[in-house]
């Protein structure tokens, strides 16, 4: 007598090991933005839309200080407009007056020419840096 036993089907068990290795890296970048030139030599808020003033606001032979824009606009000759930084080159006060052909600083009495910003009266030794201004119709716009 033979005895045959059926071969049991082997159960295969599969174990899937999922190794999830997630390592998060956080990289922090510290950006350090410092400006090292203490005084910017007169480039007041350029590129703003809208005009700075009307040409009729600027007296012929004189000018007008726009303290909030740190700029002074002059009209040395009829229809000729110039603009300069209103920051005095002596110690950085804002000029506050245009009279008798000069742009005047209240702090120590420096005076600058309305025509080209050059020093007319010390103690400043350097001219007011020019600022570009454009005229469209009757409106003045800083460039
Ligand atoms: S800061 Fe203008 S004269 Fe001194």
From TrEMBL:
The keyword Iron-sulfur applies. It comes from Streptomyces cinnamoneus. Residues 50-142 form the Rieske domain. The keyword Disulfide bond applies. GO terms for cellular component: membrane. Its cofactor is [2Fe-2S] cluster. Keywords: 2Fe-2S, Disulfide bond, Iron, Iron-sulfur, Metal-binding. CDD domains: Rieske. Residues 38-61, 118-143 are annotated as: Disordered. It comes from the Bacteria. GO terms for molecular function: 2 iron, 2 sulfur cluster binding; metal ion binding; monooxygenase activity; oxidoreductase activity, acting on paired donors, with incorporation or reduction of molecular oxygen. Iron-sulfur subunit of the cytochrome bc1 complex, an essential component of the respiratory electron transport chain required for ATP synthesis. The bc1 complex catalyzes the oxidation of menaquinol and the reduction of cytochrome c in the respiratory chain. The bc1 complex operates through a Q-cycle mechanism that couples electron transfer to generation of the proton gradient that drives ATP synthesis. This is Cytochrome bc1 complex Rieske iron-sulfur subunit. The lineage of its organism: Bacteria, Bacillati, Actinomycetota, Actinomycetes, Kitasatosporales.
